[in-house]
Amino acid sequence: MYKATDLAKRDIINISDGAKLGSVTDMHFDLSTGKVTAIVVSPSRKMGVFRAGREVVIPWEKVVKFGLDAVLVDVGPMTR
What pLDDT, on a 0 to 100 scale, did the predictor assign at position 51? Predict the structure, then answer.
């Protein structure tokens, strides 16, 4: 079992293009079932000006694998 705070400590990596998307800053839940429906990822400040301030909502179905240091997602190539 994972805690939400554990996810915030891991990098989110897109397996489609190898890009580091940032870290989890929020989660979306289905209130009727209590299940997570999406994670919200915000780029870190060191990721460059192209992505500064852009949050990305990733559907839970796109989460592929949880690792010790990263979470792998498959969201297709991201535009800068």
Answer: 52
The answer to pTM > 0.85 is no
Residue 80 lies in a domain: no
Domains identified in the chain, total number: 1
pLDDT in tens, 46-79: 555 445 567 889 999 999 999 999 999 999 887 6
Does residue 38 belong to any structural domain of this protein? yes
* DSSP symbols for 18-69: --EEEEEEEEEE-TTT--EEEEEEE--GGG-TTSTT--EEEEGGGEEEE-SS
- Domain extent, residue 60, equals 4-73
CATH code for position 12: 2.30.30.240
